[in-house]
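1st attempt posting a full record on here, be nice pls
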Amino acid sequence: MKMERAFYSKAFGGYPFGCRIYFRLNYIFETTMKTHSHLFKTFFIKSFLGLGALGAAFVCAPAADACTRVLYQGADSLFIVGRSLDWKTPIPTNLYVYPAGLHKKGSDKPGCVEWTSLYGAVYAVGYDGGVTEGMNEKGLVINGLFCKGSVYDNNETRNRPPLSMSMFVAWLLDCNSTVEEVASVLREHNFSLSGATFDNGTVTALHWGVTDSTGKSIIFEFVDGVINIYDMGDYRAMTNDPDWPAMSAIVDYWNKKGGQHTLPGTVSSPDRCVRADYFAHHVEKTSEADLGVSITRSIIVDSCVPYTYLIEGEPNISSTQWRSYANVRDHRYYFDIVTNPGYYYIDLNSLDLRRGAPILKFSTARHTQIVGNANRYLEKAPGFTPMY
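the predicted structure (as tokens):
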């Protein structure tokens, strides 16, 4: 055992957290090996060696990007999706409300995906050029979180109808009302996804969390052009790397260990996921919307990276720029910029989202002192220009 630990410490470049990942998964291995065969042992070791290489690349170096997503399950069908967006520099983000009935294009390339929206939705649009996340009038929520190593295309998908990352989430929100409908579209995979770089050449590498008004949730990830879809079941948090099978194994370990005694405390992706999942299972269930948002916010804040967080010699460390909370029962979308004194929300139930209604925009830079319902600050706008 000592030799194994020394080997993995060396393989992980001597980074303590990388070693901790090995020890956590080794615990699962040791406990399950009591009832499994030698063949399983061989399979597990080979699989873990691959995961170890992945971990060396993803979790041993200080994180350059970080996001957290959590599902709060209250009473009386109250579900709230909270997320934080973390980045090394501020990402200017405005809120747009689009009605149903608009014809849209997913790319500027010939033969691209085109559609007419079935549902109205609120989008969080980064750089006024791409939809990061949003919620539609049916309570469907989709959030994109950074996931290094995501590869969207392969030789089989490359000739399918083009679809830009800037419009991907909008397309899914416009045309679907449930998690199962989204999963069906993803299984068909009749598109070729691509995206422009941003922030001085950063590649848009993401995976996504999806939740509908019933609280059902999935995670989907692109691996070498193949879409892997995972039912979240009773898991209530996701962050960044590693991929979901490896991440869920880490969460399982800590669930068995018992979070009331100890929880991992760093800003790494696995540690944030473990904390968010644990607290989401151990808070009061309320039917009161405002209290539910406050509880969700407290869970997310515990998993955020402090604003202006710095480590000497690491200029690309991310910190939380903004948070959002989507009440899928009451169709309220809250936005919480960390440098603002409070947070506000868009109430979709009070807006005209029918065909022919105008596009509306909320400028987050202009309205920094608002708290509460922000509908009256929405202004008619031509819409954003996608960064294809």
